[in-house]
């Protein structure tokens, strides 16, 4: 099953990235999970980008989050508060690799530029809605609706490909 495998791979990359440098986390995770992800139907480029992206995200993901500790020290703020802000502002960074899998057209700019542009606009719109829902100042109901609609927009490709 592809999607549970992606979630487990992402968690492994985040945990490994907390203890080892990004390059080492990428090499370890892609060596273990890369072949499995390609056997589950991902293109090699998708699998490598997915693993690399999540290996990079360990710098803002608690509890280790090295970049957050540095930023918190520079401004004299509690690291937990800075980590919450970093994750809210960087929510798109957690969704984009999953969006690349749900919208494989994102990586087909040379072969199908129209499809790539459509996927880019769809993922961009979805991320804008999700970000607005997380950091906007509207009513809670409106913010929740924005988050849900944003997730639907980003991951509509999964539903369309599963039914087709």
Architecture overview:
- The protein folds into two domains: 1-77, no CATH class; 90-164.
- The longest helix has 24 residues, at 140-163.
- Helix 6 packs antiparallel against helix 7.
- It is flat, with a radius of gyration of 17 Å.
- The relative contact order is 0.10.
- It has eight helices and no strands.
- By secondary structure, the protein is an all-alpha fold.
Query: How many separate structural domains?
Result: 2
- Could you report the average pLDDT, rounded to the nearest whole number? 88
Helix content: over 70%
How much of the residues is beta strand, in percent? Answer: under 5%
Number of helical segments with 4 or more residues: 8
Radius of gyration: 17 Å
Low-confidence stretches: none
């Amino acid at each position: 099953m592809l999607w549970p495998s992606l979630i487990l791979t992402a968690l492994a990359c985040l945990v490994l990235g907390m203890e080892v440098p990004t390059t080492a986390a990428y090499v370890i995770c892609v060596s273990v999970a890369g072949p499995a992800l390609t056997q589950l139907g991902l293109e090699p480029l998708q699998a490598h980008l997915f693993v690399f992206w999540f290996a990079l995200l360990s710098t803002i993901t608690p509890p280790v989050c090295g970049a957050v500790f540095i930023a918190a020290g520079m401004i004299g703020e509690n690291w937990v508060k800075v980590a919450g802000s970093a994750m809210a502002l960087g929510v798109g960074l957690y969704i984009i690799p999953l969006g690349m899998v749900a919208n494989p057209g994102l990586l087909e700019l040379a072969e199908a530029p129209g499809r790539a542009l459509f996927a880019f606009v769809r993922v961009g719109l979805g991320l804008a809605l999700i970000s607005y829902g997380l950091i906007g100042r509207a009513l809670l109901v409106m913010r929740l609706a924005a988050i849900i609609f944003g997730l639907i927009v980003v991951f509509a490709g999964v539903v369309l490909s599963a039914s087709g």
